[in-house]
Amino acid sequence: MSLDDKSKRLFCFGYGYSCDYLGYELQRLGGWTLSGTTRDQDKRKNLLTRRIRTHLFDYNYPLPDADKILRDVTHVLISTPPDDEGDPAFLAHAHDIARMPNLQWLGYLSTTGVYGDRQGGVVDESAEIRPTSKRGSRRALAEDQWLSLYRDYGTPVHIFRLAGIYGPGRSALDSVRAGVARRIDKPGQVFNRIHVEDIAQTIIASFHRPNPGAAYNLADDAPEPSHEVIRYACELLELEVPPLIPFNEADMAPIALSFYKDNKHVLNNRIKEELGVQLRYPNYKLGLEGCLAAEAAASQAFKEANYSGI
Predict the structure, then answer these.
(1) Domain tally, the chain
(2) Residue 258 vs residue 15, higher pLDDT
(3) 50, 137, 245, 252: which could join 256 in a potential S-S bond, CB 3.0 to 4.6 Å?
(4) Is residue 304 helix, strand or coil?
């Protein structure tokens, strides 16, 4: 069965922000049937109204009849958050997935946090996995779990290591509007980011050029300090730029503090050279401008729909 066949079926364990954008893009392209899981009953109802077959799933509630649910699925994307034991979808359904009769491609959304702190150094996919945070350690374990299906059963597993995800509704523009954005200054600290549209296009490129066992960095071309991103968001919104706060004076929650423990420059050459990806948003300025444009387009579409009585 090739990707050009009409019976293309994607199942997402954890139908969240990134999977949703991928789903919209596949619906736009046509020929795809979408399904997946969520932990939230209200979200399940919303997805069902969009003709996305959705099942409740978490550590305590595995799929009730996985063989039947996954029987005709051709593509699986995993974005469920792991804990200290690993990925819940793997722990509950690894053997079900290994024997899927029509599976052509499986992708796991991991994080560049698996590389750990490199004190500003450069990493690519050949770099050693040596996480320095609990979040990175959990993702490294989950990566190895999914790759074990490739090693043991030949399951077509692909790993995608994502930098900081942002996009419409989830960017510095939103934190600035909410009045919660702070400009933390830790000299020499940089972060890569990845726009959700570039996540979607990279995954689709992998559909067309599968390479089981491969890992890909999904990151932009220009890692920058977070305070510069906040500053530019303020400029776009024509709002006052918050003052810089020295890192050693910033009172941050543990989860926020953990992001500042890792400092590295993530290279993305492999998605360009192997998958032919050209990033739509290679830096945060273009990305934030794109978010603002998407908001304006959505607002205009809403006005037109109401005006026409749709």
Answers:
(1) 1
(2) 15
(3) 252
(4) helix
